[in-house]
Amino acid sequence: MSKNSKVLNLKDKISGNEVDLSLCNLTEVPVRELALFTKATVVDLSCNNITSLPPEFCNLTHLVKVDLSKNQLTCLPEDVGNLVNLQHLDLYNNKLTVLPVSFSQLRSLKWLDLKDNPLEAGLAKAAGDCLDEKQCKQCASKVLEHMNGLQDEVDRAREKRLLREKELERKREVKQREREARDKEARKQEKAEEKEKRRREYNAQMAALAAREQQKKKSEEKKKKNGQAAADKKAVVELAPKPRRSLIGLMFKLLLLLLLGLAGVAATCRLTDLQKETACVPVNIFVDDSLSWAKEQEGVVRQLVQNLSSAAKEFLESTQTSKN
């Protein structure tokens, strides 16, 4: 069936401000078509197989009276409260258990029938029996009052939830600020520790450098001192006076040489053919006189020979020591 045919059929069912769609075996409400006829404020959708109302149904704010009795409705749209002009609502014999909280906004509602629905206890008590016109009017009033109470509870719950969320958000912000402050302090501490570490490293490097310089200076001073000591020692060795020879030894040597010379001359003049020579005559006379005197002074000569022997021995030992 095309849209135009639907429009034509809907026109056929309009009488004045009423639209009669009862007993049409509908499973859904023709919302688009109803929206085209804003002067049709009364809609009869009873005795169909409608299980739910689309959200767009709540945009039909021109409706004043709606009959949805004897359908299969299990719930109403959440925004049903947008039907601010609705005065008469028949929901008899459906499968409703609760009403949306926005139902409390139907402040124009004067008549309501909810009998033969499996309503929850509190709503059923507020709805009453709806057996006549008066009870249906009371039903509308009491159900609105009941729904206003639920709306207040929902509002309070929502307000509490918002307060909790706001408090949680505030706590999150506080924690975030504390975390940022800790992070900032940690970064500051880390920078300070890094700076202190660099300072210690720098001081250690300077100390090591100073120690090396000091060690180098000491080494140079030690080398200089050792060199000076060696130079001084060399100078001392060079400047040290050679040990003086013993004067006695020198005199002994001279005397020994003299004696050897005299002995040689005496031996030459006495034992060789030169004894008759003129030069040897005095020598031979001296030797003879000396021998005579020596015989006379034999003890003295012996003592002198011993002294000479000791002196000669000492001289030889000192000479040997000097060579070593």
Automatic annotation (TrEMBL):
It is a single-pass type II membrane protein. Keywords: Coiled coil, Endoplasmic reticulum, Leucine-rich repeat, Membrane, Nucleus, Repeat, Transmembrane, Transmembrane helix. Pfam families: LRR_1 (PF00560), LRR_8 (PF13855). Residues 170-202, 213-223 have a biased composition (Basic and acidic residues). It is found in: Endoplasmic reticulum membrane; Microsome membrane; Nucleus. It comes from the Eukaryota. The keyword Transmembrane helix applies. Residues 170-233 are annotated as: Disordered. The chain crosses the membrane at residues 247-267. SUPFAM superfamilies: L domain-like. GO terms for cellular component: endoplasmic reticulum membrane; nucleus. SMART domains: LRR_TYP. This is Leucine-rich repeat-containing protein 59.
